[in-house]
Amino acid sequence: MTYWSILRRQHVFRVLFGSWVGRLAMAMAAVAIPLALRDAGADYVFIGLVAGSFAISAAIGSPIIGRIVDRVGQVRVLVPTGLLAAAGFVLIAVAPSNHALVLTGAVLAGALTPPLEPCLRVLWPGLVGDDELEKAYAVDSAAQELVFVFGPLVVSLCLAVFAPVSALWAQALLTVVGVAMFATASPARRWTPEKVENRHWLGPLRHRGLMLLLLAPIGMGVAIGTLNVLVVSYAERFEVFGGAPMLLTLNALASLVGVLIYGLIPWKIQPRTRIVYFSVGLLVGYGLLATVPSPLGMAGLMLLTGFFLAPMLAALFGLIGDLAPRGTVTEAFAWLVTLFAAGSSLGAAVVGPVLDRDNLNLAAAHAGVGALFCLLMVSVGYRMFVPAKETALA
Fold first, then answer.
1. Transmembrane residues, as ranges (predicted)?
2. In the structure, what pLDDT confidence band is assigned to residue 216 with cuts at 50, 70 and 90?
3. Other CB atoms within 10 Å distance of the CB of residue 236
4. Which tens digits make up the pLDDT trace of 126-143?
5. How far apart are CA 24 and CA 35, in angstroms?
6. Percentage of the chain surpassing pLDDT 70?
7. What's the pLDDT score for residue 394?
8. Which of 121, 145, 256, 347 could form a disulfide with 222 if both were Cys (CB 3.0 to 4.6 A apart)?
9. CA-based nearest residue to 81, from 98, 95, 68
10. Widest Cα–Cα separation across the chain
11. Contact 27, 92 (CB under 8 A)
């Protein structure tokens, strides 16, 4: 079974591409919003406030919106959130010098980010057979890597052809187009929430094993957030061909290759065991960053850390879907998005002051700490990462 056979399945390319287009808009936000505000004369204090407001709003809103999807369906949530998130970007674009409107737009766009990512993952079991789910999750993870490759490129194109504020208009357009393509597809329209009586207020978090599993992405996020800031400082101290963007590109490409290989392997190892192995790989790669090697060695570490990241996420997708209690799957995937983003923000925030003190080795060690936390979570919860159906068979 090849990846092409997955993409040729009815509706797969449409929902995957629609989700990708919508997610592309959100991937642009970290670059587009600061550039547009800076061009309008904003200082870095306000830019940081806006960026933080967007990130925090998205982190809070994602699981709430995911829970609503689990109750009322996908289309009834995707359409209004898509329109309101786009309106948030437009609000910033039309008044980039008005602080009140900019903050309102950032909170609106962040809190009402369309849940395309969790919605797509909920659809996969109905789009492909059980024996194809691993490849489907690998395709999904690969698409996510491409989002972060093409997002900054779209912003760069907007800057080259138009003004920085045009990237915000592009985000609004991509959000609407992506949501429209996804929400009008038959699988999204047909998907109905599971009827569950006496829903628990904790939702998917009432499953102790799943709660531990969802903590692992925090450590992964810390490692990634640290790396994103670290390479900028590293490129200022060493002669790196292509600078920090080249290092991050190597990391993303290795991640893409890793997950494509992952999806082609006929796994005999249980997903819970796989994530432990991948966590060890991440710990080795991110732990070695503390040595701050030469540019050639750093390039090698970019490949090593990236190689295990996307396969880890792909394995997590499947395991989360298996562990989530009935009627909570969308919210469970939304928690993954939120906690990974929260970890990334934490890593970036903590490593900055350390780099200001010119301690590159200590700053790089933060990435290893994040990877270690991830390994600890998947190790502590290992015995609880058993789907209910497997427990019943045992």
1. 12-33, 45-65, 77-95, 145-163, 209-234, 240-263, 275-292, 298-320, 332-351, 363-385
2. very high
3. 12
4. 898 888 888 888 888 888
5. 17
6. 96
7. 36
8. 347
9. 68
10. 64
11. no
Q: Quick check: 40 and 93 in contact, CB under 8 A?
A: no
Q: What is the pLDDT of residues 28-48, one digit of tens each?
A: 887 788 888 988 888 878 887
The pTM score is 0.82
- Alpha-carbon distance of 310 to 182, in angstroms, equals 23
Q: How far apart are the C-alpha atoms of 147 and 151, rounded to whole Å?
A: 6
Q: How wide is the angle at C-alpha 213 spanned by C-alphas 207 and 217, nearest 5°?
A: 140
Q: Specify the pLDDT at position 65.
A: 94
Closest CA to 314 of 333, 295, 300, 297: 333
Q: How far apart are the first and last CA of the chain?
A: 30
- Tokens (6 digits) for 54: 């967007």
Q: What is the DSSP string of 275-331?
A: HHHHHHHHHHHHHHGGG---HHHHHHHHHHHHHHHHHHHHHHHHHHHHHSPTT-HHH
Flag whether pLDDT at 146 surpasses 90: no
Q: Which residues contact 61 (CB under 8 A, 6 or more apart)?
A: 110, 111, 112, 113
Count Cβ atoms below 10 Å from residue 201 Cβ, excluding itself: 6
> Does residue 116 register a pLDDT over 90?
yes
Residue ranges with strand state E in 207-285: none
Domains of the chain in start order, with CATH, are: 11-190 (1.20.1250.20), 203-386 (1.20.1250.20)
The candidate with the shortest Cα–Cα distance to 330, out of 321, 338, 339, is: 321
